[in-house]
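> tool_call: predict_assembly(chains=two)
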Amino acid sequence: MNNLYRLFTQQKAIVAIAVILLVMVAAGGDVSRIFFSSYNLLDMLNSSTILVILGLGVTLTVIAGGCDLSIGGILVVSGILSIQLQNFMPMPLALVLAVLFGTLVGFFNGFLVVQQKTEPFIITLGVGLLLTGVAQQLSDAHPVPANNPDFMNISNGYQFGDGQFTEGHFPGIPNLVIIMLICFVFFAWLIRYTSFGRNLYAIGGDYDVARYSGINVVANKWMTLVISGTMAALGGVLLSSKLNTGSAIYGDFTALVVNCGVVVGGTSFAGGVGGIWQSVLGLLLFGLLDNAMNVLNIPSWYQMMLKGTVIVAILWMDSYTQKRKRELV
Amino acid sequence: MNKVGFILKDYLVLLMILGLALVTAIIQPKFISPANLNNIMRQFGPLILVALGMTFVIVGGFIDLSVAGTINLVAVVTITLIDPLGQVGALIAGLVIGSICGAINAGLILTSGATTQAEALFITFGMSTVYSSLALIYSGGSTFHFWDLKEMPNMFEAIGAGSVGPLSVSFVIFLGALALLWIFHTKMAAGRAISLTGGNKTAARLSGVPIERSIVLIYTIAGFMAALGAIVLFSRVTTASPVIGAGFETNAILAVVVGGTTLKGGKGSVLRTVMGVLLVILLNNCLNLLGVSSYMQWAARGAILVFAIWLDNRKEVQGNQL
């Protein structure tokens, strides 16, 4: 009984993924065949990559006891910038500037949250709102098309293959998956083997104790928001390249879904626990859920309701586990 | 000097936006025309009602992002119930649904033992999605109009467009709600308990303040006021769509914080919120008259929200140093 409770509370993502897979097996027939086809699985992985890239940065802020809800705004603004700047300068420079924009916003967030000690949840929500307005102004609330095949190829190309799905033929690995893997390895290293990464756990666990132990808490926590802003901008550039358009509408839901995905994996808003692996699983869960609902042909409003319910259920469990822990002590 | 500084900080946002109003009145004399002032009074309706409810949530140390979903749901359900239940029945049903939505939020927060604003923020966001999707599923995504009903709903028309003497009906509803909530907050034990809960939950519990009751009360009030806001809103535009409430949660939080209620909980009042809403409406009106695009207005609201929270926090930091 106790073991079962631990399994459900600590490995929420794995349990939920297992449930979805079981449902898809049980559905049988064409649904199972389509869902488990290599094309669909690769497509699912591919469409979750951007969420994962955003989640990697957010994980650092959550471990350090913060949160970043401005990533939705950063995502859309940098996505639009990456396309519009190409009119004035060569593509690589435009992309670098678009990503640097995210770094800048992250720096500003860090100033507000860490240096000025404001509540991260509400202030980053405000910054996200501000940036969404800026994105709508930049794009005049219309999708901004890109017309550079090289730009489109960044996210849509394949390595080690031609991207053709035919019988008995290796289609290759999508670029996005490779980029995600590189980021993943980098972050896993950062958090496990550098003093910066280890410090974040100390800061999230107890801010004051970390400060008295001689950790430069302000600089370290500030850095997490800078990194998270940068990763959000990178995600925005990749998303624009993938869709070949920049638009102000993608950010609405993304910020909260990514933050929830991170928590689902086991990184708690209480700070000090969690890891990169867990976040990736949590975010893949949302990709899996989206894909499964599409294959099952669930109407979009019901999808919205189901997703909302899943988010509430998981956050409820996160808080409940915290409460149990408090009561045990 | 210090005292002057405090008062200045407390009302800096107020002074800023009053300055903005003055500049607008000079550049664009239409601003002080009777038609525009009447327009401002009518805009007071929905947002102030939602913000009054939000005040209690924030004073209690929590936050509620689900009001947008509640407004969507209440608007479409109420308008479709006018034919089968009659107008009074539909009105009551709408208010009950809003209160139930709030009570569900409170139940989730209570059972999970969430004590921080962050946990409440995410749970209520999830519930907002659920309520909004229920509104979409219930309405099939379509918009309902008064002229599609069997007969014109006179009572709702009066709520939306009627007048009592020089005041609009929605303004009278607002005054009534304000008086009731103000008395509840300042004179009644349950209302005082909300402030104590927000100030310090542990201290409140140890001194015997029932914080569970406070949590249920603040969210139920927020849900009820959101429902009232939804009814005034769709009565004014004579149309209810399942996305009618979008943006209300951030505007309401903005109004509460700009008014000077602190996000840390424990301090604040409904009267401050009235000031905050007046400022938000004036800002929208000024920006409209100055011809600022609606997208930049969105950005401006975000900027002011960030600024107001920052300022609120500065006050806190300085207060601790004294």
